[in-house]
Known about the structure:
Strand content: under 5%
Structural class: mainly alpha
Order of helices and strands: HHHHHHH
Number of strands: 0
Oligomer: single chain
Low-confidence stretches: none
Number of helices: 7
Amino acid sequence: MLWELFWTFFKLGTFTFGSGYAMIPMIEREVVDRKKWFDREDFYNQFTLAQSAPGPFALNTAVFVGYKMKGWWGSLVSVIGVSISPFVIILLIAVYLSGFSTNPIVEAAFKGIRPAVIAMIAVPFINMMKGLRWYFIALAIGVAVVVWLTGISPIWLLLAGAAVGVSVALSGKKEGEVKQ
Length: 180
């Protein structure tokens, strides 16, 4: 299992371009659809936890998935797997290709990659919205607009959301009982 964790995250780290968010659909496909390590709801809970924890999203996800599967050793090999390829690639670029960053062909290639990266980031969010009630989607859009327009730190909104969720749970209401 440790080798399987390492190899899964090594492939993800090697063949994913963009950011940690661009990795979400690939991670979801691997750990939910192919490996069946998580069900979709549990994966989205892990996704939320990885998103709200400090540090790079891809590393946080590797930590959480690895820990669930094999404890601390699982976390360690998953993090090594997801980070070794990008580290080597960045090192090689820094050493050998730094002069190519202004090359028009390289610039054009990166511009061409951008739409695909945006789509890879959008897919998990759209998938997560499928099971939500309309008011949660409206709230998510509202929060995104507030962050975008005001520049307020998303941390404060995460804390406020957690406080509201805890208060609703403590008051004895279930998600379905909230008035629509």
